[in-house]
Design brief:
It comes from Brevibacterium epidermidis. It is built from 15 helices and 16 strands. With about 450 residues, the chain is an alpha/beta fold. The two termini are about 15 Å apart. Bound molecules: D-gluconic acid (GCO).
């Protein structure tokens, strides 16, 4: 399929997240997260989906492991639900053994199948009592995250060596706290920016705990997007520069350089205390990099100084004009990042890449998702080109193993290599599953 030589030696994985696949929201003592509140409030999720049962991986994880084994990935990126582990954190610090048991069984099943587990500690499911006292605006949340990390590392650290700490802090801060599109649904605009610092600090506190418990990898995963100005006009260029700071540099600079970019244009000060930047910028073994699409912006009168517009001439995914398909922008972003940060940038793992396309809810036969195959092939092509330009990229991960709960879009956007019937949980591999399996096997031979 692809340039197998160029991909030889890479790690291949597929990704999921707890709230998106587990279902079973009240099973085995699980407590509530901000996503339970978001889903239960009418009008937040496009199709009113309750996020369960869906793939119901809490009960069907054996099927997921069998699919991963059939795919031939050497790693599996999943996330751990904070409120399965400490259900009422914020009011009661008790650990829930039944919640930990689930991840214990999942890890053991993966290891028995020869697959390296690579859990993410935080994929957006903040415990409700922490949100009630300010959530990621409150520095105390960072310390509660440290406590949670201790508990999980203590239980799984004898078998799990590869960890991700926080996932896509940009999405949480911008869509969750600034614009209200995702949980917790706050609309603070630039007043949301302190949530960036606290999430990065949560990584900075968690990573050493994981390493003390045997981790050989403890890194955050960051979602990046190449920002394109809608025109050559100076105000559009300036708007693109501002969004690049907010979406990209606000994360790469502190993690890799130990400093934040100039935020004076946004009129907000970050709540930095002594020692924070050292924790945030402590070197990590890898850089977790999620990429989906570029973002085109023009200048706006407000309330924000930029406004997203469709990317001219690009084909689109199931999300329509705001999810353009431009693999060249992934390549360019990777090359720019490697040039800018030089030796501060560790080897990159592509921790998410993938696309949704309109597909049937139920199916008796294989789905011929050639558009997904094209998307993945072209983005792997971009990875190869970036590698050839000298960027060190050691792994690639498809989002997602399964069709799953796509946040505010409910079940309406399907990203899986495997189709899931959301009423029955029945899993059916798509053509892209076989394509990825063959690619992995060619890269290994
Ligand atoms: C993330 C991602 C995933 C999404 C995927 C498709 O947080 O890592 O947002 O959870 O499902 O990016 O939108």
């Amino acid at each position: 399929p692809n340039d197998a030589d160029a991909l030889a030696g890479m790690h291949f994985s597929a990704a999921t997240a707890a709230f998106q696949i587990e279902g079973a929201r009240t099973a085995a003592g699980r407590g509530r997260s901000i996503w339970d509140d978001f889903v239960d409030a009418p009008g937040n999720v496009i199709d009113g989906s309750p996020a369960e049962p869906g793939p119901d991986s809490f009960h069907r994880f054996d099927e997921d492991i069998a699919l991963l084994a059939g795919l031939g990935v050497d790693r599996y990126r999943f996330s751990i639900s904070w409120t399965r582990v400490i259900p009422n954190v914020g009011t009661d610090a008790s650990v829930n053994p039944a919640g930990l048991d689930y991840y214990d069984r999942l890890v053991d099943g993966l290891l028995a199948a020869g697959i390296t587990p690579e859990p993410t500690l935080y994929h957006w499911d903040l415990p409700v009592a922490l949100e009630a006292s300010g959530g990621w605006l409150n520095r105390d949340t960072v310390h509660r995250f440290g406590d949670y990390t201790e508990v999980v590392a203590d239980r799984l650290g004898d078998r799990v060596r590869h960890w991700y700490t926080i996932n896509e802090p940009a999405s949480t801060s911008l869509q969750g706290y600034a614009l209200g599109e995702l949980a917790p649904g706050q609309t603070l605009l630039f007043e949301a920016l302190p949530t960036v610092h606290h999430q990065l600090l949560a990584h900075g506190i968690a990573a050493p705990i994981l390493r003390e418990n045997g981790a050989v990898q403890a890194a955050p995963t960051l979602n990046h997007s190449l920002i394109l100005p809608a025109s050559e006009a100076a105000d559009d260029q300036a708007a693109a520069g501002l969004l690049d700071v907010i979406h990209n540099r606000l994360f790469t600079d502190p993690l890799l350089l130990g400093t934040y970019p100039d935020l004076s244009a946004f009129g907000v000060e970050l709540p930095i205390e002594d020692g924070d930047m050292e924790l945030i910028s402590a070197p990590n073994e890898v850089y977790g990099f999620n990429y989906y699409n570029p973002t085109t912006v023009r200048a706006s009168e407000g309330p924000l100084p930029f406004e997203m517009v469709p990317t001219p001439g690009a084909p689109v995914t199931g999300f329509g004009p705001m999810w353009p398909i431009r693999p060249d922008t992934m390549r360019d972003f990777l090359i720019d990042m490697a040039r800018r940060y030089e030796s501060a940038l560790p080897p990159i793992i592509i921790t998410e890449n993938g696309a949704s396309f309109p597909e049937p809810d139920t199916t008796d036969t294989e789905i011929s998702d050639s558009d997904r195959i094209d998307y993945l092939r072209d983005h792997l092509g971009a990875v190869i080109e970036a590698k050839e330009a000298g960027v060190r990229i050691d792994g690639y991960t498809v989002w997602s193993l399964l069709d799953n709960f796509e946040w505010a879009d409910g079940w309406s956007q399907r990203f899986g290599l495997v189709h899931v019937d959301m009423r029955t949980g029945t899993r059916t591999p798509k053509a892209s599953f076989r394509w990825y399996r063959d690619l992995i096997s060619a890269a290994r031979s």
